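Researcher: Go.
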Amino acid sequence: GRESAMAAAAAAAVSGAHAAARFTKNLSPDKINLSTLKGEGQLTNLELDEEVLQNVLELPTWLAITRVYCNRASIRIQWTRLKTHPICLCLDKVEVEMKTCEDPRPPNGQSPIALASGQSEYGFAEKVVEGMFIIVNSITIKIHSKAFHASFELWQLQGYSVNPNWQQSDLRLTRITDPCRGEVLTFKEITWQTLRIEADATDNGDQDPVTTPLRLITNQGRIQIALKRRTKDCNVISSKLMFLLDDLLWVLTDSQLKAMMKYAESLSEAMEKSAHQRKSLAPEPVQITPPAPSAQQSWAQAFGGSQGNSNSSSSRLSQYFEKFDVKESSYHLLISRLDLHICDDSQSREPG
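Model: Structure:
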């Protein structure tokens, strides 16, 4: 048993190294192997592969990554507890540059993790990488668009897998797989200490030259993400994203408010085109082959049943999946307390 566990860990190390190498432009699997086989390692000055990240993050096609850089990364892996405990990845400073696409870019490709492990379906390598606990000291995201440019700065960011009730737990409880549907649900949470957002009009001649930059600083916040994917190819079917903020105090001038509406309008067209593209490329419904009896038996045992009542356990699993199912993609913004002030910014005031 111990030998087979070590062999599985070694195989995971190799596929993990190849997957990690796919994420980077300036790193070979050998270099990663040497450090990660020991269970910990450090890497510096990483240029990450934009297209691979787009695929992993399932970015909408109206948005494209143009550059990602990380000055220092360290990794800690508990090889013998990969099924239950996450790999811990610590990043010091991350810089991301993106652009909006007036016409949608090509759709996201296949999962690089699955490709690196030599399998297209949702397997062990995918689960391990997906379950990673990521800590980022600071991240700057710059977005360039025809109408505006924006920057997002986040400090003390953490990203990790959670169970369907948004609590950290054993990694095996952070996903719900229904073999009958051929689908898997996974749940993630991202938290941060401080978020600073700044946006300003792009100076391209046809804009109103006098615009006031938009600025917003918030304290703690979090994003909760539920993803539904096909197990046979790891493709995302639908997702639910919730942006949660505790307190938000924002003072806006009327020109800033107008600018914000103009920026939103400029994005809506690109988002609409992207949505049309997604609908036109949507695959035909797939007929799922019922799982083999052995798979049903293992699920029966996992849910406390015996081999004899695998049908009832499949039914319970189906109900559990149904309870947390992501029927369609949606985005939500929840603010516990919003304090918004809008004021006139005219410089010339009437005397008296």
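Model: Confidence is low (pLDDT under 50) at residues 291-307, 348-352.
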